[in-house]
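Suppose a colleague, Dr. K., hands you the sequence of a protein chain of 252 amino acids and asks what its three-dimensional shape might be. Before reaching for any lab equipment, you can write down a predicted structure in token form. Begin with the sequence itself:
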Amino acid sequence: MSGHNKWSKIKNKKGASDAKRGNLYTKLTREIIIATREGGGDPDGNFRLRLAIQKARDSNMPLDNIDRAIKKGSGTGEGGQLVEMTLEGYGPSGTAFLVSGLSDNRNRTVQEVRSTFTRHGGSLAESGSVSWLFDSKGIISIDAANVDADELTLQAIDAGAEDVDVEDGVIEVSTAPTDLMKVRLALEKKGITIGSSELQKIPKTMVKLDDKAGVQALKLLDKLESIDDVQNVYSNADISDAAATAFEEGPA
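The predicted structure, expressed as tokens, is then:
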């Protein structure tokens, strides 16, 4: 899972800039709205809403914003117009991309995503073309500083985790989707500070890219996630450290 770990770290760094321009809070609000609309406003009886609220809290989203989003999802306002969608595509060197979104205008979103793929050396694909390359997993991220990784690994496995990966100061705990909150709560009871926890699409295999293609893939990721209607982007691109550095140091 090491290639995925690096991809996640790059996305997390980008998440900080998303928050500054309000993009992140918009995405979190939409997820809460759709989760509430589909499963009700009680997080104890709505697993998806519980995850959405936890993610919002991990991102320091104000409680008032969370409450307003739940009320919108429970009413007939903006939440009733949103539709979930998953788009699939190919990036540089044939890498697979999954794009999940919430939109009030599917045609507009599809056009924006298609144009973004085209401008960055990729193409939109038919439904089912790449989704089979990914598994749904719960992912818990923890800062490895001041944490005994070996002890945490044992604690996570005892709590029901499937795998633990440590790379570049980040510990990622992988779980079955239904075990995500159970494992998170067990670790928190052990005094572990959780950075984030969410359901993700994890590639079954990674495609290693050279530095040039790696930078292209990261630019595509950045542009796709900057689209308002896009919630998450997943890829099986294996990015080198050199490509990640070049992207981070390059122009925005």
